[in-house]
Amino acid sequence: MYGGDEVSAIVIDLGSHTCKAGYAGEDAPKAVFPSVVGSIDQMDIDDSANNEKTSSVDSKNNIKDSEKGKGKHKLYVGSQAVGFRRDHMEVLSPIKDGVVVDWDIVDSIWDHALRECLLIDPKEHPMLLAEPSSNTQQQRERTAELMFEKYNVPALFLAKNAVLTSFASGRPTSLVVDSGGGSTTVAPVHDGYVLQKAVSSSPIGGEFLTDCLMKSLESKGITIKPRYSFKRKEIRPSEFQIVDLDFPNTTESYRLYSQRVIASDIKECVCRAPDTPYDETAYSNIPMTPYELPDGQTIEIGADRFKIPDILFNPSLAQTIPGMENFAEIAPNVRGLPQMVIESINRCDVDIRRELFSSILLAGGTASMQQLKERLEKDLLEESPQAARVKVLASGNSTERRFSVWIGGSILASLGSFQQMWFSKSEYEEHGASYVQRKCP
């Protein structure tokens, strides 16, 4: 048992776009940084030339070496370290389709969150980790092994994202629509358990929408200059000239990452879900919204403000964007949000369907888009059975929507009644990693 107020648990939610970490019982995560890392393969570079440079950078940034078969990789974690352009630096993500594919990167992200951001010793704090509803047994055991063997944590608990979102809004039963960076998942939660058979997911998340926006802007002849590729030079007071800089050794993945950061800001600033399904003719003469890019040029965004968010409701719209035509081959049977919700509810028992219809929770960064809640509610009212009372709930505060999984974890780990649920180190030593299935359903 880990009762008592002295030891506070740590809650970590590693999403496909951002990693959130902080202390249980607080109302927002202390550390929020991108869950991608910059990686430099040491074979590419002759170390001698680099020694003088890196020694000065090492002190500022969190840098790890991980041994790989073909040589050393230097990993740069955290928004500052990734935001700094380096020659030959690739941007890698440890998560693909919601599943961890590279544990070395996950390890360096956890390490950065615990030691650099929260400045704690993991040996002294129990850890509550959020995991996707579709996590496999193998993934969970691997997580437990890493946490107990490498970090020596005293206790661990793995909780499903959807369950935590449910707790954050104070409901034991709800339908959680979690739209994050990498994907959108609809999961019914009943009495604090995810109904696995009814979970449905789609690959359309915030990053996909950002890609669509970038392609659409490119087709109109607008190129987004990454921040590192120019510098501003003052000619007269408050008048600037842009000087292009040339970095031949910048990798393609880093260039894309830098453009994406800007494109996703455009998306968050100007996009909003349209009230009715998007129609090319109706939106063709809509007033333009200006947006100033970092290099000083102002672009005008018209129909795209509504077209991009509408892809969530009608995925086939993506094929009308130049450069995204092959989307249908990658994901032929992707469904829109309302269809996913109804399909998911229909796979549940008849007696809980009414309750699920009346408590649909929106969570995740993409779900905090303007007008999304109203549009989803409107579409569901049209498609759902007559008897159902449809209610889509979303916290008015967009911070709460973005961090709802983390907040749910924070509430759960600070409850007194939860303290006997931890999977402790002694149990791990006695029963092994597979025991995590019994302790964390």
From TrEMBL:
Subcellular location, principal: cytoplasm
GO cellular component, one term: cytoplasm
Compositional bias per record (Polar residues), positions renumbered to this chain: 51-60
Keyword annotations from UniProtKB, A to Z: Chromatin regulator, Cytoplasm, Developmental protein, Nucleus
SMART domains, per the entry: ACTIN
Subcellular location field: Cytoplasm; Nucleus
Gene3D superfamilies referenced in this protein's UniProt entry, alphabetically: 3.30.420.40, Actin, Chain A, domain 4
Entry-linked InterPro entries: Actin, ATPase_NBD
Biological processes annotated in GO: chromatin remodeling; regulation of transcription by RNA polymerase II
Job description of the protein: Involved in several developmental processes including organization of plant organs, flowering time, anther development, flower senescence and fertility, probably by regulating the chromatin structure.
Record-stated family: Belongs to the actin family. ARP4 subfamily.
Name this protein carries in UniProt: Actin-related protein 4
